[in-house]
Amino acid sequence: MSKWKDDKTEHYFAQHPKSKARFGFLRACLRGRSFEFLTASGVFSHRRIDLGTRLLAESVLLPSEGCVLDMGCGYGAVGIVAAMFNPRLHVVLVDVNARAVWLARQNAERNDLRNIEVRCGNLYEPVEDLVFDCVFSNPPVSAGMETVKEIICGAPKHLSNKGLFEMVIRSKVAGKRFTALFNEAFGNCEVFARRSGYRVLLSRKE
User: Fold this and answer.
1) Fold of 49-204
2) Per-residue pLDDT band at 183 (split at 50, 70, 90)
3) Are strands 89-95 and 66-71 parallel, antiparallel or unpaired?
4) 8-46 pLDDT per residue, tens
5) Hey, where are the domains in the chain?
């Protein structure tokens, strides 16, 4: 893996990162399989797979077939793992960051995945024409709670009946506020995975 120079702090939840792209590769073992991802400065967790992304990638509950959404995909790690392990799924990846979207497309090609589609835009705007059987997200918490709230509360509109919504968050912030938002949007919420200070919350559209 290439060595990285230190970056100036930049908000990755932006359409066009201002920093010059410095590219590199990272390797990770996810669900017992080795992956290599092209990454770049100006996108989230470009030096390593962060613990939240790893937990979501390794524990996400997926339907046997249908259409699923990786909301805020970054360079595509979770969506690519989902597509690799279930080729009958149509996996849609969305991010507002144009650099992340380009990287996700490159990584889908690198892994020779034909069941992935990557769209660029803000939150659910690029997928207004689609309904999903599952939506999962490692949300852009640094963009603010209102953005995270939009992801949670906007999900039911884009889910099929009995569809799943899954989100990984830090355990120390996964208290009453997040549970309340899940219950407000879905009427139910449970913790179905936890590790290394993170947990994955799950709701089902009734």
Assistant:
1) Rossmann fold (3.40.50)
2) very high
3) parallel
4) 334 455 555 556 677 889 999 999 999 999 999 878 777
5) 49-204
Straight-line distance from the first to the last Cα atom of the chain, in angstroms, rounded to the nearest whole number: 45
User: What span, in angstroms and rounded, lies between the C-alpha atoms of 76 and 118?
Assistant: 9
Burial class (CB in 10 A: 0-12, 13-18, 19+), 46: buried
Return the biggest CA–CA distance within the chain. 48
Give all strands (DSSP E) within the chain, no chain letters.
23-30, 33-40, 66-71, 89-95, 116-120, 132-137, 159-170, 190-195, 198-204
Q: Which amino acid is at 186?
A: F
CA dist list (Å): 107 to 73, 87, 116, 141: 12, 16, 10, 24
Which residues fall within 8 angstroms of residue 175, CB to CB, at 6 or more apart? Answer: none
